[in-house]
Amino acid sequence: MNTSDQLADFEQATCLGFEIAETDLPARFGLHAEATLEDPGMYYLNARLGGEVVASTIAYVTEDQLGIYGMSTLPRFRRRGYGTALVHAAVATRPDLPASVHPDPPSVPMYTCWGFEPAGYIARWDRANQLG
C-alpha cells in the first residue's frame, strides 16, 4: 500500500529527475492527487540511497496490463542501475502481465536494452491544438 510520504517523495524525485527548477516545483501533491493512494492498481516506487530518493516510477496494474510511467532519476545518480532496479520492481508487481511503457524518444534505447520492443506510436489530443 502506498503512503502520502511515498507519493510526496515520488513527486519530488520526478521533478528533480526531469530537472524542473526548484523555484518551479509544484506544491505537495501538485502532480498526482492524493486520492490516487486509494487506487489498488497504483504503485509509487522510489529507489533510495542513504535515505534520499534518487529515482522513481509508477507501476499501474489493470486486470490485463501493467503500465510503467514517469520513470525519472536525479541527474547525479544516472547510469548507476537505479532505473533498471525500478523497472524490475515494477514488473515484479505483476510478472504474469505484459508490461508497457510510453518513453520519450531519447529513452527508447534504455527500454529496448531492458527487453521492451517498440510497438507503435501514440497520438495525443490537446484542446489547445483543436482544429477549427
Describe this structure as you would to a colleague.
With 132 residues, the chain is of the alpha+beta class. Helices cover 24% and strands 22% of the residues. It is built from three helices and four strands, in the order H-E-E-E-H-E-H. The chain has helices spanning 4-17, 82-93, 108-113, and strands at 42-49, 52-61, 66-73, 99-101. It has a four-stranded mixed β-sheet, with helices on both faces.
Notable traits:
132 residues, alpha+beta, 4 strands, globular
The major pleated sheet works out as: 4 strands, mixed
End-to-end distance: 46 Å
Ranges with pLDDT <50 over ≥5 residues?
A: none
Q: Tell me, what's the shape?
A: globular
Proportion of helical residues: 10-25%
Number of beta-strand segments: 4
Strand content: 15-25%
Strand arrangement within the widest β-sheet reads: 1-2-3-4
Report the mean per-residue pLDDT as an integer. Answer: 84
What's the layout of helices and strands?
Elements lengths: L3 H14 L24 E8 L2 E10 L4 E8 L8 H12 L5 E3 L6 H6 L19
Parallel strand pairs: 3-4
Antiparallel strand pairs: 1-2, 2-3
Short description:
The chain has 132 residues and is of the alpha+beta class. It has three helices and four strands; from the N terminus they run H-E-E-E-H-E-H.
